[in-house]
UniProtKB/TrEMBL annotation:
Organism of this sequence: Streptomyces atratus
Residues of the Acyl-CoA dehydrogenase/oxidase N-terminal domain: 8-129
Gene Ontology CC annotation, any one: plasma membrane
Domain Acyl-CoA dehydrogenase/oxidase C-terminal: 240-391
Family of this protein: Belongs to the acyl-CoA dehydrogenase family.
Required cofactor(s): FAD
Name under which the protein is recorded: Acyl-CoA dehydrogenase
GO MF term (any one): flavin adenine dinucleotide binding
Alphabetical UniProt keywords: FAD, Flavoprotein, Oxidoreductase
Family matches, as Gene3D superfamilies: Acyl-CoA dehydrogenase/oxidase, N-terminal domain (1.10.540.10), Butyryl-CoA Dehydrogenase, subunit A, domain 2 (2.40.110.10), Butyryl-CoA Dehydrogenase, subunit A, domain 3 (1.20.140.10)
Domain Acyl-CoA oxidase/dehydrogenase middle: 133-228
SUPFAM superfamilies: Acyl-CoA dehydrogenase C-terminal domain-like, Acyl-CoA dehydrogenase NM domain-like
Keyword field contains Magnesium: no
Amino acid sequence: MDFSFGPDDTAFREEARAWLEAHLVGAYAAAAGTGGPGSEHEGFAVRRAWERELGRDGWIGLGWENRAAGHGNRRASLTQQVVWAEEYARAAAPARVGHIGENLLAPTLIAYGSEEQQRRFLPAVARGDALWCQGYSEPDAGSDLAAVRTAAVPDRSRGGHRVTGQKIWTSLAKEADWCFVLARTEPGSRRHHGLSFLLVPMDQPGRIEVRPIRQMSGTSEFNEVFFDGAHAEECVGGEGNGWTVAMGLLALERGVSTLVQQIGFAAELDRVVRAAMDSGAVTDPVLRERLVQQWARLRTMRWNALRTLGSTGDPGAPSVAKLLWGGWHKRLGELAVQVRGAAAAVGPDDWSAKEPYGLDEAQRLFLFTRSDTIYGGSDEIQRNIIAERVLGLPREPR
């Protein structure tokens, strides 16, 4: 299998690298590396301005026009999308605040939405003007997404639906303009049946309340969202087809973005290896072997991601990818503190810069990666999907 890039990809890489070098200056350069999982609160205002900078020069929505003409900014092959993602990660550019709109909502509209819905929503995402959040998980429906209880009824006066219920762990809910919500539109329905994929504007005072979930670090990357008869303006894919649309979105989530994630993983691994060398832990043969295994497994994840990139109809590919990177990242977090020995239990020297509960980079990596095998579908759920939908094994009794 040939994983090499062609001459057009090389030229595209040079263009992307030159643009990033020219534009990552001033406040944008100062915000380099900010944001991302575990620190999405960092430098939000600058990162939102950066989103519009990307949109002005056509770097949002690469490849959309290959599937939905007229809604994206720039044509790009699949390999060129990979090239842009790699160069963006290598430049340590600010974490994207428009990721959910560009990489989750937009491909879902292209695959399942009407032309009218695409014309209405995609251009604003491509300009960097509209931010989206995801209304999937609930207090009693996290990895088991089919257990959602948020309900929606037809809005007889305005059209659309009225949504009532609660969502949780909603990233960027305080800042988002819109939320795509999985809700139950058929009263009395259970599990995967009777669900719909609804588009809800977040600016509805008295109808939507967002409560930040404050963590022990003092930050609040996630939020609870309460809907009290909130108006949903659009239904994607038709009423009752929400499960199909929601699963299609999760499959799209683990495409090119997986490769971007792996570049960040490689940088984290490099830092852990350097820490092992500085502390002398690298002389321990067992620990040294674990570091080598991490390197080898990261390479394997890359080949697997490239192999499955753009594939359709494989229900197991997203689950395999999630199992691979979730476990890998969790083990890396463990290594990050192990290579430092007792020093890993000590807080940073400058406590004033880390209010109210200080964590250094390795400690944050260790603590945050404990959640990698849970959020986005726990390991147990991913294994069930592979067992039932790929291997054809009997379903788990309910």
